[in-house]
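Escalation from tier 1.

The customer reports that the assembly of two entities below gives different structure tokens on two consecutive runs. Tier 1 could not reproduce it. I'm attaching the input and our single run for tier 2 to review.
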Amino acid sequence: MVRIDQLTQTHLDILKEIGNIGAGNAATALSGLLGKKIDMTIPSIKIVDFNELMEYVGGPDTIIVTVFLRIQGEAPGTMFFVLSPEETNSLVEQLLGNRDFRAEEMMEHELAYSAVSEIGNILSGSYLSALSDFTSINMQPTVPALVMDMAAAILMEGLVEISQESDHAIIIDTMIEDGENSEHSVKGHFFLLPDPDSFNKIFAALGVLDK
Amino acid sequence: MIITPSIIKVGIADLKITKAPNTLKTSGLGSCVGVVIYDTTHKLAGMAHIMLPDSAASKRETNNAMKYADTAMDILLEGLKKQGANKFSLKAKMAGGAHMFSFRSENKMLRIGDRNVDAVHSILANFNIPVMAEDVGGNKGRTIEFNIETSMLEIRTVNSGIKII
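Tier 1 run:
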């Protein structure tokens, strides 16, 4: 059993590679959808307690737009695709040509809601299928849910499974960004949070589990 | 001596005890429950930000006791007693226990918000502490602040403004 405090550099590099492969695939999908060049950052791995995680996203009160899904199968975990309300606005603008859209109205705006949900759906699906292919681990996403609310309220509900076993989460964060237009850029963060028991499965599947 | 009121922040899986004129605040309650136990005579109050209903269901031992309803309430009551609270004049208010994602609510085990609220209710009943007011359930995140001087709990949500109970 690999515990959080026993992770070696090799383990962390593998988790980064997972973020790389998943987000790379998602960036390609988004690029195809928007007909634009999409950049991505080098993934970062953070081992954080719950309060640190909230600071990481800008504080527990920060309003975020999130597509949330649970990963079921051999290596369960939680995944979030996080956008700020402003980034959601520019995404909707690019998808629907609606310049006056405000994220605050998203829950009432059916077309925008389903457009953002669908983007989240496609991106998280391509992230996970790349991951599943790479590790040969069977991963099935639940139907994604789209919510806009306070960061802590959203993220903590997604962390219920993790919190039952641990006070820390390992977060694999990759950002994708619309590279052409800096004024109306869309930056989205993928947060992948494997359940504590899933790390062994992932490491074993990639042949680096220390005996 | 003039005491400047300060806002005492309670983190996730955390609890704090303080006296008036200070206020107690915790941010972004989703399925988590924020519980305030207060003593109006001594102008003393404690707030806990609870994540999970039951410490016995935990698989590991090294966990933070302030995370669970049962253990957090024990610590909170012990702390209030130490600061001179009268056991018989304690009252409670609570908020939180929402379901942020509708698809999760089909399975009862996953309705963690409801389970947190139920757990806090039964623990408070065991200690004979009356719940004076509550704002629980729904699908909105809440930020709460308790004014010890007035015993009022202010609840802020993203879309529905401010509510005071």
